Amino acid sequence: MSDEEVQAAGTGGIAWIPVLAAIVAAVGLADSVYLTIHHLTAVPVPCSIISGCETVLTSQYAEIGGIPLAAFGALAYFLAFSLAILAAFGNRTMWTVFGVQVTLMAVFTAWLIYLQAFVIGAFCQFCLLSALTTFTLFILFVISKLRRSN
Amino acid sequence: MKESKKGSSGIPVAIIILVLAVVVIGGYLFYQRSKPAPRANTASPTNTTVANQRPQPNYATAPPGAQPPNTLGSPTATVTIEEFADFQCGSCAAAHPVLKEINSAYAGNKNVRFVFRNFPLQMHDKAYDAAVAAESAGLQGTSKFWQMQDQLFTNQHVWSVANSNYRDLFIEYAQKIGLDVEKFKADMSGMQAKSRVDQDVTRGRALAISSTPTVIVNGRVVPYAEVTSAGMRRVIDAELQAATQPAQTARSANNSGSN
């Protein structure tokens, strides 16, 4: 366990990968909060030739049991943000939990991209932003692990 | 060293709480701002009624679509409601009961007619076949078209998510409304029904239809937000009145010149 990042953090310094992760998670959080509100307030829209966000956000996959999917996203990003912040200040356990969480998120996100591409047949730019932030979080975690093993 | 450790244990929690506060407050403010005015059947606050919509420039000259069109009401009506719809589109299914209600409300009025046009969008994999199913039903009688149209919209949530067996569901609906199923199957794969759908699509493209449902009343597109029971009544009544207005104006001018 000699990750230089976390080592630095252990001495009261700041681990930069978790900090970066926290910033990315904050972007994802803002995005999913926006999507949640958009979902809750959206007026019904017609089906458009230019298929896009509305198609995705009004699809049957946009909710689980009446709760907007984006709300789960917001919760997940908030958790990821909190874990990354705690890790940034030296809590290694939280960084491991963070790793488990973002791995699950990445898998789920892959499924959401599959849905957009092959089932709904439309992409939503804000959902793709969320996918980007999730994958970035995952990659950051992988990089931190690779560094440790070197 | 101790000092910094002690300090750093409080900072992350403070940051987390701060971000949570920002999200909650920001989210609440944004929610309040973007909360829409209640739609439904209350009077709409806008003056974006159909009168303000520019008429479709080439409404009269565009290709006519399938002939004869699927029509309810008198062919000589002064007010024509023309809907371009996609059977797999959720908003079209949502507009279906509204238009159905409007059609029965104006059923006795020989000045109002309703025309249904197929406009299956490419993004909906089963929409074209559904349109062909409706037209195939129509080949066995106008009333069968409307029954199939109703079946397709009210059961959209079933067949639109079915796998490759969705055509069997169409056949099931055909049975339910009492079609000659063998003829229906043959028409589903024949050219006649398809060609009717294609002609409607050609008309829709010429009118630059870009979304469904698009409801056009006497050449003017009714904004989707106005496609409500109250909104449609307002539009139709205004058009009915406009059609009789020249006579009225003339009459009031003869009487006293004031109105």
Brief summary:
The complex is a heterodimer of chains A (150) and B (259). Chain A has 150 residues and is mainly alpha-helical.
Note the main attributes of this structure.
heterodimer; A: 150 residues; mainly alpha; de novo design (two linked rop proteins); two-stranded antiparallel ribbon; 3 strands; disordered N terminus; B: 259 residues; alpha+beta; Glutaredoxin; five-stranded mixed beta sheet; 54% helix; 10% strand; globular
Notes on the protein architecture:
With 150 residues, chain A is mainly α. Chain A is built from six helices and three strands. Chain A has a two-stranded antiparallel ribbon with strand order 2-3. The longest helix of chain A has 29 residues, at 92-120. Residues 1-12 of chain A have low confidence and may be disordered. Chain B has one domain (50-248): Glutaredoxin (3-Layer(aba) Sandwich). Chain B has helices spanning 2-34, 90-105, 127-138, 142-154, 156-159, 166-176, 181-189, 191-206, 229-255; strands spanning 70-73, 79-85, 112-118, 211-212, 214-217, 220-222. The interface between A and B is large, with 37 and 40 residues.
